[in-house]
Design a protein that fits this description.
alpha+beta; 4 helices; six-stranded mixed beta sheet; nine-stranded antiparallel beta sheet; 318 residues; 27% helix
């Protein structure tokens, strides 16, 4: 065989080896792509289940949407309209109502985490952490909610008979609240006859009654006492309103002064957060919160959800 023949044979050999390598690489790439597609599909599947669970147990619907599992048993009623969230409930929120809500969350948790159900439908692992009420062997009696994007939080404590508005997540600033308008409804079981106030470290000598000023950067607070059903109440002033400095001491207190008083007091404290507490007989409370930004989401902070596919090592949580 002459030199040209040898060279041609070598070139053909290299070509065949190159084609074989290319074929092997192509098969490996296709296998890798298939594995990547399978992993991506598994992630999409796990993420979809996470979102479905969150929408069912944590996310509270806006407007007149059908109530989710959690919204149906909430211990308060609410509405969302643009930049505004309105809340109404018993005051304090009754412990039985809080317990019923937590029981509903735990019933849903048991159902969602059931491995037999998961194997039959999607083989995805689910882990949900929610507070345990006394009826489930726990001791939790408090609830926490938040809105986005402003990170305003709503906390309900049946331990301390209080409702608080403040930090729901990192980034909340009380100055993002334009105004809070609150009504308290008293009945025949109350006997309040005195109202004490302190705003901005005593810049008012009595309970203020100011109008809202849209140019003022400090948040505005207004409280109106509805006592037409309280024959034993004798409050000289029934509305308090003012812009308040979140860094200073601000409060409104309802109490009974003198002999024959039968109960405790209602305290409305304002600062970087607000807390409304009631050591007296149950009253009714409703309040409306106007924020600087539109409410995109209102959700429970008590339901921590994770979904995953152990075969692909995928976990989805927030």
């Amino acid at each position: 065989m002459n030199n040209k023949g040898i060279l041609f044979s070598v070139m053909v050999l290299f070509l065949l080896l190159s084609l074989a390598s290319l074929h092997t690489a192509t098969r490996q790439d296709m296998q890798s792509m298939q594995e990547s597609d399978a992993t991506l599909n598994a992630f999409i599947k796990a993420k979809g289940k996470y979102e479905n669970l969150r929408n069912s147990i944590a996310e509270l619907p806006k407007g007149n949407a059908e109530g989710t599992i959690s919204a149906r048993v909430l211990p308060f009623s609410y509405s969302i309209d643009g930049n505004n969230i309105s809340i109404s409930s018993d005051f304090p929120v009754q412990q039985a109502s809080v317990q019923s809500y937590l029981e509903a969350l735990n019933i849903f948790r048991v159902f969602a985490e059931d491995t037999n159900y998961a194997r039959e439908y999607d083989s995805l692992h689910v882990d949900i952490n929610v507070p345990l009420p006394k009826s489930w062997g726990g001791s939790d009696a408090n609830l926490s909610f938040a809105e986005k994007p402003g990170c305003m939080g709503l906390a309900i404590s049946s331990d301390s008979n209080s409702i608080a508005v403040g930090t729901g997540c990192v980034g909340f600033d009380m100055n993002s609240v334009k105004r809070i308008d609150l009504n308290i409804t008293l009945d025949s079981g109350h006997d309040f006859n005195a109202m004490d106030c302190n705003f901005n470290d005593g810049s008012f000598n009595s309970c203020p009654h100011e109008d809202y000023n849209s140019q003022e950067k400090m948040p505005f607070f207004s409280a109106t006492i509805l006592d037409s059903g309280c024959g034993s109440c004798s409050l000289a002033q029934k509305t308090v309103s003012a812009h308040f400095d979140k860094s200073k001491s601000n409060f409104v207190r309802l109490r009974c002064f003198g002999t024959g008083c039968r109960q405790g007091e209602i305290m409305l404290s304002l600062g970087q957060g607000t807390e409304f507490s009631n050591s007296a007989k149950k009253a009714g409370i409703s309040f409306s919160i106007d924020l600087n930004s539109q409410v995109e989401s209102f959700y429970s902070r008590d339901a921590n959800i994770m979904t995953g596919d152990s075969g692909f090592g995928i976990k989805v949580w927030e």
